[in-house]
Amino acid sequence: MTAELDPEDEEYLACLADTLWPDDEYLEPEHSSDGEEESGGSGMRR
Questions:
Q1: What is the pTM of this model?
Q2: Which tens digit of pLDDT belongs to each residue from 18-28?
Q3: Distance in angstroms (rounded) separating the CA atoms of residues 31 and 2
């Protein structure tokens, strides 16, 4: 993302992220069964 947000928008998004992800689990890399890391995702495997 390269867009700059207004300070009010940044504060709103920070509060929203803190509410939705209180333990910062979105920052932890996911590990696949073959030992390689995957980026993003919902944590559900197919």
A1: 0.45
A2: 898 888 766 66
A3: 28
Beta-ladder partners of 30: 38
Query: Which residue ranges of the chain lie beneath pLDDT 50?
Result: 46
Residue 1 near residue 10 (C-beta atoms within 8 A): no
Rounded to whole angstroms, the Cα distance separating 37 from 2 reads 25
The set of residues, in sequence order, having a beta carbon less than 8 Å from that of 32 and lying 6+ positions away, is 38
- What residues contact 17, with CB distance under 8 A and at least 6 apart? 26
Q: Which residue has the tokens 């559900």?
A: 44
Q: Report yes or no: 17 and 24 within 8 Å, Cβ to Cβ.
A: no
